[in-house]
Write a structure and sequence with these properties.
Layout lengths: L9 H23 L6 H32 L2 H6 L6 H33 L20 H27 L1 H6 L5 H18 L2 H14 L4 H10 L3 H14 L4 H14 L4 H14 L4 H13 L3 H14 L4 H13 L3 H14 L3 H14 L2 E11 L4 E14 L2 E13 L4 E16 L2 E12 L8 E12 L7 E10 L4 H5 L3 E12 L4 E13 L4 E16 L2 E12 L12 E14 L5 E14 L9 E15 L2 E11 L15 E11 L2
Antiparallel strand pairs: 1-2, 1-16, 2-3, 3-4, 4-5, 5-6, 6-7, 7-8, 8-9, 9-10, 10-11, 11-12, 12-13, 13-14, 14-15, 15-16
Helix pairs in contact: 1-2, 2-4, 4-5, 7-8, 8-9, 9-10, 10-11, 11-12, 11-13, 12-13, 13-14, 14-15, 15-16, 16-17
């Protein structure tokens, strides 16, 4: 017999079938003219059978509700379910069902007997003396039925009490913890596969409440966690429980890499461990390369991608990422080859655009240029020039430059012409070396013959990490061409400049600048020393706020046309902003506002005056391989600018426009 469902045993099934067959049997007997029990008895039996069927249905529904409540994840989270709960629930439902059926039967019996008792003298006839025993007295029969009912009820109550006793509850069989965990875990995995993240998270949490060391639930719950710190804690717990599983280290490394620059080292150590455990696993090798790229360790990232692609040449995603890193490293030819390999495997619109840009950057190029300047003293310059360059090898590019400049002050006009060679060498992503050399020919003026002056520049820039120190060194010689007087006096400047940058926090940098220059002409040489300090704060990835202090000293006064005070000091607050539009246009602005004061020779420091500056650069892509560049400079202070011929209020504006046109 099924517990809690009266009438579902073998006897009950036969009874139900017999009761349901009684109408057919009664009809058959009446047709054949045989003796029958009457339709009243048939109706009573059918009513009893219907009551049993309804009782079985209701009992089954109630048992199902009780079973669902005990297997709910909230119950699992609270601990195991008491083992006698289902038995007591089934017993209570059984008693209720039996009581309902018994009450229905008794009511039906009283109704039938009552109708029979009022029907006539048949019940008062005396029995036969010998063949039939005397009937049992009605009161005695009723008393026996009541005793049997009391006995049945007592047995049922005893069973309920025994089932509910704590000692018996402990002795009863209960489902093992593993089976309950398996059910909850299956539900969680089903919800995870269906994309129901909130439901899956609740089920996985319920599993961990019962089995805190279930590594599958720990890993999945970490994947679903929106809290980065909680996800990291769960993944680290998984690694502690499964130290030989490379996927745990991969997951921890991925979370740390998204954390920020300060955790890149920890992320790389996790990926290194994953690679040691699974050297051929793509997510370990390529994931490590991605962390290197995110950390701006471009050379190491390129090496990692190339090592992977040597054995897995059809990995289109790795080819695309390699191309981006080679573009960042200043190797457009190598980047173009990587993008071309990716396009050959799986064509992609974004990759095709990057391929076109890389091919344009690697192709020979022409660059016509127009520039000019004007200051408040009336000096003006206009220069027409251009450049041509080509790639000799992947890290080496060679070019030639030429230009003609006109300098005037409203009274005197002169000109100069320059030609030269320039080269760019970038052996590594962190190091770039630029060199140029040539000659500048100065026109004859005021009886002076034309002369030529050698010019050139050597510059090295080193930046190993975005949050590491950086160094920029430059040695330069050029002609002072801000005014006709300077050109006429053949003034030239040879300068060494060094900039050192040191991050002291994730968003704070210290920058030191030193400049030592020698200004010479055929009759004398003057020396200038400039020191500057900058505290820069990165308010956003493309926004920098800074405070600057600059101090300049000259050895002696000037006699050939440039401004040379004994001491000049400038204090400014600055802001640098850079942003790029979706179509590739780049805008950058460097704004400074502050004060300056100047001390002439044999005089003290003068009053503080305003010191304003603005420098901007705009790059507009006209077509793939064709960019228009516009540079603009505005200054409203004289300190430190050789073009200035007087102290106090002095303004200067310059502009340059160039076109970079790739020949493809």
């Amino acid at each position: 017999m099924t517990v809690g469902l009266p009438g579902t045993g073998i006897g009950g099934m036969f009874y139900l079938l017999s009761a349901l067959a009684m109408p057919l049997s009664e009809a058959y007997r009446r047709i054949r003219g045989l003796a029958s029990g009457g339709w009243r008895i048939v109706a009573g039996q059918l009513a009893i059978a219907g009551g049993m069927i309804v009782g079985m249905f209701l009992t089954g529904r109630l048992l199902g509700a009780a079973l669902h409540a005990t297997q709910h994840p909230a119950r699992l989270a609270l601990g195991s379910v008491p083992s006698n709960v289902l038995r007591i629930a089934a017993l209570v439902l059984s008693i209720g069902t039996l009581a309902a059926v018994l009450a229905a039967v008794e009511l039906l019996r009283f109704w039938i007997h009552g109708r029979a008792g009022s029907g006539g003298s048949a019940s008062t006839r005396a029995p036969r003396e010998r063949d039939v025993p005397a009937p049992i007295e009605p009161r005695a029969a009723a008393g026996g039925e009541r005793r049997r009912a009391r006995t049945l009820i007592a047995l049922l109550l005893f069973e309920a009490a025994a089932a509910s006793h704590p000692g018996n509850a402990r002795a009863q069989h209960r489902p093992p913890v593993r089976s309950r965990v398996a059910v909850a875990l299956a539900r969680a995995d089903s919800a995870f596969t269906a994309g129901s993240t909130s439901i899956a998270s609740r089920h996985y949490a319920a599993v961990l409440a019962v089995d805190p060391e279930n590594t599958h639930a720990i890993y999945r719950l970490a994947q679903l966690s929106a809290d980065r710190a909680e996800a990291l804690r769960l993944f680290q717990r998984y690694v502690a429980l499964e130290p030989e599983d490379p996927w745990g280290y991969i997951a921890v490394g991925a979370v740390l890499a998204r954390w920020g620059p300060g955790r890149y080292g920890d992320a790389l150590r996790c990926y290194d461990q994953a690679v040691r455990l699974a050297p051929g696993e793509r997510d370990a090798v390529v994931g490590r390369a991605r962390v290197l790229a995110r950390a701006r360790r471009t050379d190491a990232a390129i090496a990692a991608y190339e090592q992977w692609l040597d054995a897995h040449g059809t990995d289109v995603e790795a080819w695309r990422e390699l191309g981006r890193e080679q573009t960042r490293a200043g190797r457009p030819a190598d980047a173009a080859r990587a993008f071309a390999r990716a396009q050959a495997i799986v064509p992609d619109q974004t990759t095709d655009r990057r391929l076109a840009l890389a091919e344009a950057a690697a192709a020979p190029a022409l660059g016509p240029q127009v520039s000019g300047s004007h200051d408040s003293d009336g000096n003006a310059t206009l220069r027409l020039g251009g450049a041509a360059e080509l790639t000799v090898s992947a890290p080496f590019r060679l070019g030639v430059t030429a230009g003609h400049e006109r300098v005037a002050d409203g009274v005197t006009t002169t000109a100069l012409t320059d030609v030269g060679l320039r080269a760019t060498w970038r052996p590594r992503a962190v190091l770039q070396v630029e060199a140029s050399g040539g000659v500048t020919a100065l026109d004859a003026i005021a009886g002076a013959r034309a002369t030529s002056t050698p010019t050139g520049q050597l510059r090295a820039r080193w930046r190993p990490l975005p949050l590491g120190p950086a160094l920029d060194l430059r040695l330069q010689r050029n002609v002072l061409d801000a005014s006709p007087r300077l050109v006429t006096n053949r003034a030239a400047r040879t300068e060494f400049r060094g900039t050192f940058e040191l991050p002291v926090a994730r968003v704070v940098k210290l920058r030191g600048i030193a400049r030592a220059a020698s200004l010479s002409d055929p009759t004398e040489t003057n020396h200038r020393m400039a020191l500057a300090g900058v505290v820069a704060f990165a308010a956003a990835p493309s926004v920098e706020l800074s405070a600057r202090f600059n101090q300049i000293r000259y050895d002696h006064p000037d006699t050939v046309g440039y401004f040379a005070p004994r001491l000049a000091q400038v204090v400014q607050a600055g802001s640098y902003l850079e942003f790029e539009t979706p179509n590739g246009a780049l805008f950058s602005f460097d704004v400074g506002a502050g004060v300056q004061r100047v001390a002439k020779f044999s005089a003290g420091l003068g009053p503080w005056q305003r010191a304003l500056s603005l420098y901007s650069s705009i790059v507009l892509p006209l077509a793939p391989g064709c960019d228009l560049k516009i540079d603009l400079g505005l200054e409203d202070y004289a300190a430190g600018n050789e073009a200035a011929t007087s102290a106090g209020s002095w303004r200067y504006v310059s502009a340059a426009t160039s076109l970079q046109w790739a020949l493809r």
